């Protein structure tokens, strides 16, 4: 599923609240590694060039909700200001009047950095009120903080429930490379793991055993495996309580046909420090007492290179030895060099952040990899196959193949036939050729024939606002499905709240109409929704459950798939009050889960669920980008040019 990025939106004059990961190492107030600042620059520059105003958020360290000067973002903001030629100002607050004033007076093309987000207790708790506050400062959210993507915090996940969140370029690149190798690696796929603890990487190894062709192990973690295999490892580091796990991972690798390649020699010493005597020993000869393995040996380097040679994808996480000390750095350096050599020949290479990234940097090789992740913990969790909340919260594009998306207008008792003809002619010219979703216009009965004629050479479909369940008879004022079919009407709105409330339509009656519409091959747009009192009494889900169960009564799964549901909270219809995207998504997801229980997952996933109730161009993007919202049933805004703008939003979001 592809994520929407800053490229997908018009940024001119917009207030953008941007989350970056400027959690950089500081020593005596000085930044010792500015990789993360530089990595976010291209997004910041792009957004500024497009005429946006940027409010920048980041955490720094773990101040645990307290204001601690040593964790201030000021030095970072100063450095950013140098890198952005004086476009940056800093405010030592995380909220309040001063922040609001600074935002108010912020000019286009300028950046305001606010203080460390973790000075707020609510940040790491993903506090709703804090997220809402930060969201209120801006029009949109941009998330370029991949290093923080494994955290569900207010500044990355919480804000996204209130305003739409778009990926920055760094986030996009991380998703492309780390997500890409994880979801669909070009084979053969080799993974090199090192570092200290097997326990830190169990999840990763488990996941990789399902995907990789070769797993190479180095670093201190190799000794846990070697010990598990009965080798003599002297006083090398290993994890006693992970020996059984190591055995089972070795067994699993064999069962899965994954090559699990362990070192054949190691560089040993009696002490972990520079300048000590070192020896190279073969693993099969064992390490004598008092000596410990601190790097992989030259034969292992050769073996790794040979086995890695034909790889199309290589992921590296964790150094092969104590690379910080020259005597034990050769293994890590050699592995880095061999990956670079393969990369130059076309292999995709990814370093999963952390110490391996630092090692590549130390050897001057970092730029020669396809991608070096800026996230340690985040890339590890991503490689474990976990969904990262920071990425999940970014709006996704919708795939045409996944669902039938619909933009439906319900005109109610508005527009004469003359007005209908005029307006539909205009719409036909503007949105008459849509193919990735259905545009449906539901008009008063008297104008249906005219409407059908006008749109006949376009993709626009016409719907009625109601019908009776009988074919004909003594039902003064009613129209039947036969009459609609006769003039080529394709859709019909059933059970709209106004009909339920004003004309006393019951669930049972609506069910009869749905059954009839299905029988006649008319597409029913079945409306449901709760009153304000019901929501306030926490009865929303009860009301929805009743309406859905009764509405679908005695309809089989095949027919159910043809029903279009429109969730319209009654308190939001014509009142100007709109459900927040999060509120709407919650109910839509509930409806979907209910349908899955009544039928099955496949049926539930193929039913389109539209949202209705004060839908306007300024709120539709947030709604439509939600996972379970498949379009809109639009009242007032379908009577004007706004309907065209809603279609443009659909165009933007559907891939
Ligand atoms: N054989 C070894 N014995 C002790 N420490 C080692 C050994 N091999 C690697 N290390 C240390 O492991 C550390 C990195 O481990 P880890 O944090 O797991 O890696 P990463 O951050 O890349 O995931 C480095 O500081 C390195 O010195
Ligand atoms: O530096 C970070 O983590 P990382 O060192 O695992 O990449 C991120 O900024 C996340 O910080 P956190 O682990 O304090 O939540």
Gist of the model:
This protein is of the alpha/beta class. Pathway: Carbohydrate biosynthesis; gluconeogenesis; Carbohydrate degradation; glycolysis; pyruvate from D-glyceraldehyde 3-phosphate: step 2/5; Carbohydrate degradation; glycolysis; D-glyceraldehyde 3-phosphate from glycerone phosphate: step 1/1.
Topology, element by element:
Layout: E1 15-19, E2 26-27, E3 30-31, H1 35-49, E4 53-57, H2 74-83, E5 88-91, H3 97-104, E6 111-114, H4 121-124, H5 128-136, E7 140-143, H6 154-158, E8 165-167, H7 169-183, E9 189-193, H8 198-208, E10 214-217, H9 221-228, H10 243-256, E11 259-261, E12 265-269, E13 278-282, E14 292-296, H11 298-308, E15 313-317, H12 330-344, E16 348-351, H13 354-362, E17 371-372, H14 377-383, H15 389-392, E18 406-410, H16 417-431, E19 438-442, H17 448-454, E20 461-464, H18 481-486, E21 491-494, H19 497-502, H20 507-519, E22 523-528, H21 532-536, H22 540-551, H23 557-560, E23 564-567, H24 581-598, H25 601-606, E24 609-612, H26 617-624, E25 631-634, H27 642-653
Parallel strand pairs: 1-4, 1-7, 4-6, 5-6, 7-8, 9-10, 9-15, 10-11, 15-16, 16-17, 18-19, 18-25, 19-20, 20-21, 21-22, 22-23, 23-24, 24-25
Antiparallel strand pairs: 2-3, 12-13, 12-14
The structure holds adenosine-5'-diphosphate and 1,3-bisphosphoglyceric acid.
Structural write-up:
Involved in the gluconeogenesis. Catalyzes stereospecifically the conversion of dihydroxyacetone phosphate (DHAP) to D-glyceraldehyde-3-phosphate (G3P). Pfam families: PGK, TIM. It comes from Tepiditoga spiralis. Substrate binds at residues 21-23, 36, 59-62, 118, 151, 410-412, 574, 614, 635-636. ATP binds at residues 201, 293, 324, 353-356. The protein has 655 residues and is of the alpha/beta class. The protein folds into 3 domains: 15-167, Phosphoglycerate kinase, N-terminal domain (Rossmann fold), CATH 3.40.50.1260; 185-393, Rossmann fold, CATH 3.40.50; 406-653, Alpha-Beta Barrel (TIM Barrel), CATH 3.20.20. It is 39% helix and 16% strand. It is built from 27 helices and 25 strands. An 8-stranded parallel beta barrel has the order 18-19-20-21-22-23-24-25, surrounded by 6 helices. Strand 15 (313-317), helix 12 (330-344) and strand 16 form a beta-alpha-beta unit. Helix 24 (581-598) packs across helix 26 (617-624) and helix 26 (617-624) packs parallel to helix 27 (642-653). The model has no long low-confidence stretch (mean pLDDT 96). The structure holds adenosine-5'-diphosphate (ADP) and 1,3-bisphosphoglyceric acid. Adenosine-5'-diphosphate is lined by residues 194-197, 200, 219-220, 237, 293-294, 317-319, 321-322, 324, 354-356, 376.
